[in-house]
Design goal:
Cathepsin D, subunit A, domain 1; 383 residues; 6-stranded mixed barrel; 28 strands; mainly beta; 40% strand
């Protein structure tokens, strides 16, 4: 998830000559008008101008894009710090990393936390179990200092894995997960990392924000405590959170070519940085796939003719009376020269009517997760 002038008055002379007021554009305004601000800040990260343009105490954590599948940043746990690569996940609320107590293949291929090497670690011997859409972990609950960028969260609850299921974790480019959803989704009697940072007075504002790069390995960021306006165009549009667990919102409708194709009476969606695709219920997604002439493969994936991609319509999500188009260049991906896959997926459980707006959607829109006002802000990203 992403982070959150000059008037000169001249005195009247004896002749009562009036000098018009003149507004001098700041460096920030001039660079932004030419879409150069973000590039300038990245090229001159230690310049005085950068320090002045950045809001105080706003922490910007860089993330790496792994093949548009997930975005990974580095945190550390313990004293002295032990570093781990984690997914900053708005679809869950707990922090966990592999531990030396784990013998699963996924732990063998990743960094493991050694509690005996940290003099600030506190054990509880409390067993935990976390279940995700495509994986699960079991382990123990512990407490230690967690660092993200220049933020330090004292005595933070986190999981030390003992088992990690699935091949997806074994071959993942990340070690663990840092959840950013509401506390109601967290392990009982624990406080998620973001809530701890706020309660410990580490943040100027009770929000965080995401910019997810597209087709670039570097450049993605999560911001804690504020917003960097250079990452988006126009004004943020706000969508109220409809239920405080996931970052859940109401979708008014989903349309293509001006025709509603799903959510005709409104539906619910969660905004999830930990999911790579856009996921929806069986019938509506099949209707959309049929309308773009997608066909299924032997592996259950859906493909379209690459020659047709440029002519496919946008999928338009309307939320709080504002439209958010997702073009075919986003919901279709080309993995081979002549094969184009759909980035729309079906909720295979069949038990949920929720839509999941994952990274396919979020790469298009800078996203602010505002806990103070229980709302999500969206604005088109600066490309």
């Amino acid at each position: 998830m992403r982070w959150i002038g000059f008037l000169s008055l001249v005195a009247l002379s004896e002749c009562l000559v009036t000098v018009p007021l003149t507004k001098i554009k700041s460096m920030r305004e001039s660079l932004r008008e030419r879409d150069l601000l973000r590039d300038y800040l990245q090229r001159h990260p230690y310049s005085q101008a950068y320090k002045l343009l950045r809001q105080p105490r706003v922490t910007v954590q860089s993330m790496r894009n792994y093949l548009d599948m997930y975005y990974v940043g580095t945190i550390s746990i313990g004293t002295p710090p032990q570093k781990f690569r984690v997914v900053f996940d708005t679809g869950s609320a707990d922090l966990w990393v592999p531990s030396i107590y784990c013998s699963s293949p996924a732990c063998v291929t990743h960094k493991t936390f050694n509690p005996r090497a940290s003099f600030t670690f506190r054990s509880t011997n409390r067993p935990i179990w976390l279940l995700y859409a495509s994986a699960s972990m079991t382990g123990l609950l512990g407490y230690d200092d967690v660092r993200a960028g220049d933020l330090v969260c004292k005595s933070q609850a986190f999981g030390l894995s003992r088992t990690e299921s699935s091949k997806s974790l074994e071959f993942a480019a990340f070690d663990g997960i840092l959840g950013l959803a509401y506390p109601s989704l967290a392990l009982k009697d624990t406080t998620p990392v973001f809530d701890s940072l706020w309660k410990q007075g580490r943040l100027p504002d009770n929000l965080f924000a995401f910019y997810l790069s597209s087709n670039k390995r570097n450049g993605s960021v999560v911001m804690f405590g504020g917003v960097d306006h250079s990452y988006y165009r126009g004004e943020l549009q706000w969508v109220p959170v409809s239920e405080q667990g996931f970052w859940q919102v109401t979708v008014d409708s989903i349309s293509m070519n001006g025709t509603v194709v799903a959510c005709s009476g409104g539906c619910q969606a969660i905004v999830d940085t930990g999911t790579s695709l856009v996921i929806g219920p069986l019938s509506p997604v099949l209707n959309i796939l049929k309308s773009i002439h997608a066909r299924t493969t032997s592996t259950g994936e859906y493909i379209v003719s690459c020659d047709d991609v440029q002519s496919l319509p946008d999928i338009v999500f309307t939320m709080n009376n504002v439209t958010y188009p997702v073009p075919a260049s986003a919901y279709i991906r080309r993995e081979q020269t002549d094969i184009c896959y759909s980035n729309l997926d079906i909720d295979t459980s069949g038990s949920s009517s929720l839509w999941v707006l994952g990274d396919v959607f979020l790469r298009l829109y800078f996203t602010v997760f505002d806990r103070a006002n229980n709302r999500i802000g969206l604005a088109p990203v600066v490309v």
